[in-house]
Design a protein that fits this description.
It is a single chain. This protein is α+β, with helices and mostly antiparallel strands. It has 2 domains: 3-135, Jelly Rolls; 140-215, Winged helix-like DNA-binding domain superfamily/Winged helix DNA-binding domain (Arc Repressor Mutant, subunit A, Orthogonal Bundle), CATH 1.10.10. Helices cover 47% and strands 24% of the residues. The strands form 3 sheets. The protein has a 4-stranded antiparallel beta sheet. A hairpin with a 5-residue loop joins β4 and β5 (61-67). α5 (142-154) packs across α8 and α6 (167-174) crosses α7 (178-190).
């Protein structure tokens, strides 16, 4: 969701729900939705970055995606008449969230054209991104997926971009082990795609140019 739409969403939430909207500020690594929990609220992410995670029966962590401001968590489940949330949602950076009782949010969708349009746009964008991400991950090699990850993280911030996610998170997001991740980091640093500063990955304008050339952009 672009900044203008996000401001529209904030205004609509405040106008439509007034005293029934609750805002909270969360620190990184805060789990605000647990898979299987009762779907009582619709959560709207007003700022920050979060990610959706699930676990295999053997306990392996699978990170579905990282998501930024404008996400509407619980909406898809509610529209499918589910009573519980699908997936755990955890903050990756400091986040501001607004939560609205689920029944009030669904009722407002029937009467508020602007809210309905924004919700429809969100679902369309979310679905398209999910399909693109799935196609990319299945078509590209793990090394190429890591380069795509570095590219998408870099274009979201002023350069040089400091990527501070821990290595376990990145490895799980890419679906590889940490040993492979460190091997790619060493190789990418030698090839000029990134620099490392303590635990952070740094992407400069020159690094990003090389990544774009390698990916064919």
């Amino acid at each position: 969701m672009d900044p203008l739409q996000l401001e529209d969403l904030k205004s609509i939430l405040e106008y439509t729900f007034s005293s029934n909207i609750y805002t909270q500020k969360l620190n990184p690594n805060s789990c605000f939705i647990e898979s299987g929990a009762q779907l009582d609220y619709i959560y709207v992410q007003l700022s920050g970055t979060s990610y959706i995670v699930n676990y295999t029966p053997k306990g392996k962590r699978i990170i579905a995606d990282t998501l930024h401001g404008g996400q509407i968590y619980g909406l898809i489940e509610a529209l499918h008449h589910r009573k519980t949330y699908i997936g755990n949602v955890i903050t990756l950076s400091p986040c501001i969230l607004a939560k609205v009782p689920c029944n009030l949010f669904l009722s407002a969708l029937k009467h508020d054209l602007f809210l309905s349009n924004l919700a429809l746009g969100y679902i369309a964008d979310f679905s398209a991104k999910l399909m693109e991400s799935s196609e990319q991950k299945s078509a590209a090699s793990p090394m190429e997926n890591f380069l795509f990850y570095l590219y998408h993280r870099s274009i979201q911030h002023p350069l040089p971009c400091h990527i501070k996610e821990n290595k376990s998170f990145i490895a799980d997001y890419l679906g590889i082990d940490k040993r492979s991740l460190y091997r790619y980091l060493n190789q990418f640093e030698k090839e000029g795609y990134l620099r490392r500063e303590k635990q952070a990955i740094l992407i400069s304008e020159e690094n990003l140019g090389l990544i774009k050339k390698r990916l064919g952009f």
